[in-house]
Design a protein that fits this description.
Elements (H helix, E strand, L loop, with lengths): L10 E12 L4 E8 L6 E2 L2 E11 L4 E6 L5 E10 L2 E12 L8 E3 L5 H4 L9 H13 L3 H15 L1 E2 L10 H7 L1 E2 L1 H14 L4 E8 L5 E10 L5 E7 L4 E2 L4 E7 L2 H4 L2 E6 L5 E11 L1 H6 L10
Parallel strand pairs: 9-10
Antiparallel strand pairs: 1-7, 1-17, 2-6, 2-16, 3-4, 4-7, 5-6, 8-13, 11-12, 11-15, 12-13, 13-14
Helix pairs in contact: 2-3, 2-5, 3-5, 4-5
Length: 295
């Protein structure tokens, strides 16, 4: 059963993540990008603190924002002998109002979220489905709701049958995939139907791994725009038990970890994650763990 947080109830989350890259032989000139800390603000979500500990190798860290206002951490290490490990924590508050937790106002221009990408390009079949949904929808919000439900019915969740390079059309043709594929298919439908939509990466309370969903950017009759969050994997609105980390046009924009190095062997990645609701009192007594070990 997926955890639910009642509407209007404020919740504080503590997110702890560990990413370890192990190398069989030393590597040089490592450059790594981490997109794993939640955005400073997103709808009713507010990040109030975060931290990073790196072990295994001396490293330089810089923090910036990308074109989507995501929190980007860049790491440089001249040499990594055996492994490098990133321990990241963040504290985020969600909710506290009677507004729908899956809706938030937006100010971004629509163009970047309306154009298809390599991963969300609609083929003839998807364009046909978009046309059918348009013909039976009373407005853009109705279309997005139907696109979410259609995607959920068309796909079955299964690991290890797609990759981060699988397109929406290819995933749909196979009928199997993970949340990333469900999201790409819904994005393809929305964009083919003329509705700007963005890919959201984050976490869902009660699930072990990271998660992905979609925000459709809906314009009302007076021109105000609202981001409405849908989870096509579960066919439901994405409420305040969802924790947004980053947004973009597709998975490529929000990959949690990416980078390169000079060496003769690939890196082996292992990850752990812990997301729990806490009280501010608990944070005072038990602050987020900072890993003090070494590789």
């Amino acid at each position: 059963m997926l955890a639910e947080i009642p509407k209007g109830e404020q919740c504080t989350y503590r997110l702890e993540q560990r990413f370890r890259y192990t190398y069989a032989t030393p590597v040089r000139a490592l450059r790594h990008r981490l997109l794993v800390v939640p955005r400073s603000m997103h709808g009713d979500q507010c990040r109030i603190d975060w931290g990073l500990t790196i072990s295994g190798s001396p490293a330089q860290v810089s923090v910036s924002s990308d074109e989507f206002d995501n929190h980007v951490i860049d790491v440089r290490a001249a040499r990594v002998s055996g492994c490098i490990e990133f321990d990241v924590w963040a504290v985020v508050v969600r909710g506290g109002s009677e507004a729908d937790p899956n809706r938030s106002s937006v100010s971004e221009t629509d163009g970047q979220y309306l154009e298809p990408t390599l991963l969300t390009q609609a083929d003839g079949f998807l364009r046909g489905i978009a046309d059918q949904l348009s013909a039976t929808s009373i407005d853009d919000l109705d279309f997005a709701e139907k696109a979410c439900a259609w995607t959920h019915r068309a796909m079955r969740y299964q690991f290890d049958v797609t990759s981060v390079h699988t397109t929406a059309a290819d995933a749909l043709a196979g009928g199997l995939g993970v949340c990333q594929d469900f999201s790409h298919i819904m994005l393809a439908l929305c964009r083919a139907g003329g509705i700007p939509a963005r890919y959201v990466s984050g976490h869902l309370l009660g699930e072990g791994g990271s998660h992905a969903w979609v925000e459709a950017l809906i314009t009302d009759r007076i021109g105000s725009r609202t981001a409405v969050a849908f989870d096509p994997t579960h066919d439901r609105p994405a409420g305040n038990n969802y924790l947004t980390v980053a947004v973009g046009r597709d998975y490529t924009d929000v990959a949690p970890t990416s980078g390169w190095f000079e060496g003769n062997c690939p890196g082996l990645l292992s990850t752990t994650k812990r997301l729990v609701p806490v009280t501010l009192g608990e944070l005072t007594i038990n602050p987020p763990r900072r890993h003090a070990g070494s590789c």
